[in-house]
């Protein structure tokens, strides 16, 4: 049975960090420099997770951590009153089985419960699988783009929005 809930200090931070590493190495192959993906380690994510565990939702399937979403108030001044899905990842073996949809719906509901106007997120522009997924979730590209340095490369990002009203 799938359970989605906020992360607590008692959860296995290493297991959640492994979701990040495995997901990045799978989803970003061919999009992010391979040498960067090969060097990813759970250690960096563990410290980020410990900084604010409750900002992370975790998806557990029969008690096993299979996914995570980092949800917060939008970090961009232009998106005041919005929630932001900063990251959303599943272990690769669980992609395409409806768990990503459930985790995204939980992240959106979290923002709705906070009384926010909309949800935004940024996705690698060349990640057609992720763009298609968010579009199927009802999100629309806002027309805003930016570039971000990842692994020594400047990569284009596209913003997606979903009104909550």
In whole angstroms, the N-to-C terminal distance is 30 Å
As laid out across the biggest beta sheet, the strand order is 1-2-3-4-5-7-6
Oligomer: single chain
Apparent shape:
globular
Tally of helical segments: 5
Task: Please describe the structure with a list of short key phrases separated by commas or semicolons.
165 residues, seven-stranded mixed beta sheet, 7 strands, 5 helices, alpha+beta
Q: Short description, anyone?
A:
This protein is of the alpha+beta class.
Describe the protein.
With 165 residues, the protein is an alpha+beta fold. Helices cover 33% and strands 36% of the residues. The protein is built from five helices and seven strands, in the order βαααβββαβαββ. A seven-stranded mixed beta sheet has the order 1-2-3-4-5-7-6. It is globular. The N and C termini lie far apart (30 Å). The mean pLDDT is 96.
